Request: fold
Amino acid sequence: PPSPPARNSCRAARRAPLSMASGRISEVPAAADSWDDEVASAKANLADMRSNLAALKARQASLEKTARDASAEEASLKGKLADVLRQGAELQREDVEHLIYTDEGWGPWEGDFRGLWEPLALQRSLAERPMLRSGAPNPRPAVHAEALLGAEVPAPGPGFGGLGRAELVSKRPLMVLVPDFASPEECAGLIELGFRNCKCHNKWAQEAQRPGEQRAKGKCGPVRGVATGSLKSQELPGEDRELLERMQRWVAALTGVPEHDREIRPFLKFDQPGEGLLGQPQSRLYMEPGGADRDDLSIGLHLDVNGGFDHCVCSVIIYLNACEGGRTVFPCAGDERSCELGSELTNAGHTHTSHKSVHESGLSQVAAELVEHAEESPRSLRVAPRRGAALLFFSLMGEAASGIDSGSGAPARDPRAWHGGAAVEGTLGKWTLQIFKEVPLEHRGGDREVSYVDGLRRRVLQATEGLSGRIEARADKALEAEATAEAATICLSAMD
Reply:
């Protein structure tokens, strides 16, 4: 066999092909050297690609930050636009005040009311009637009111903090009733505040509330006398200011929405018994079982986002006295046909059945049918006025809006939240304090507002779900106390 040098020479000869050039035999560079160059070149290219990739990632991060900043700026601008629109609506409302209010004062309305009003007396004939009527089953779930009110705020009424004194009326719309939210003294103070600060609507404004042709059967309904006032606590003196601010604090605690200067002002309202219904107690309402149970809603129904207040998440109506009629009616809470009609109007962007835009969009018959169902359907939810009771209900859902409402930046509207106040009957008018809670500016826009509203709704439901154990514990204690009292009575009897 060849020696090692010889073997190496043979291998080199095989690796290096020969070529004839200029009469000389030269060795071509080895393939291995070429491969080394290609590897080095590939490594250099890979390093360049990695460098380019790092630059692209940095660019991507920069673009993502720019997109986030743009999104935040868009949400901020939408919030500012909504604020400008709200301020414009307030200015517009102030501009037309001289058109709807009369300078003649209360006239006979105040005297008629005071002649029948018993501020601190229990109105037994009304108190014995059910406050809630609907096709929904009873009893309704209780709500742990203390969990909503918060320990830092004292209970406003004797029954507010008591277990079972608040109840979940409905989940769609989400609604809670607190029967003893305000004391009789607080209700009387608010009514007196109303007589000093509210103004009566003139005859033109009263007549404008009659829808006429918008109702399917051509009924105009009774003329409804109204007095209203938007209140600013800072402009009120002493006790009036303290009373209104107390109501606002408790409503903020109940709803979970803090007070802020960008929400609608508290609203006091007086409804005089409808013309033609005066002195006719129980002419339509509270009929015997099997009889007609009907309300006059001829002025129409609405959502509380009506008037450009797209961020009105929930509302609280505080009833200051009991009366005949004047029920707050929610037709879509229990009647499926009404829900279909309400959804059709909501999806088309409408917020009031009597608006001109409803007729222009070809939905006037839909609106008229919804009003008729609200008036007559036995499954409509009807809330009767009771002194001191507060009704909390939500107008916004914890989900993103779609379709025509998606441009507002606010969450979806609940199509089951359509409602209206029925005409007052009998001889005594109706007073209410209405407080509308809007999403604070820092939470408005897109997903963050959806998340905020969803959190508010979950808070109410959790106060309901967390109550069962407390009720059972209280029931056990009540049974134990009853047994102890019974044993004591037996012992005393034996001693006698």
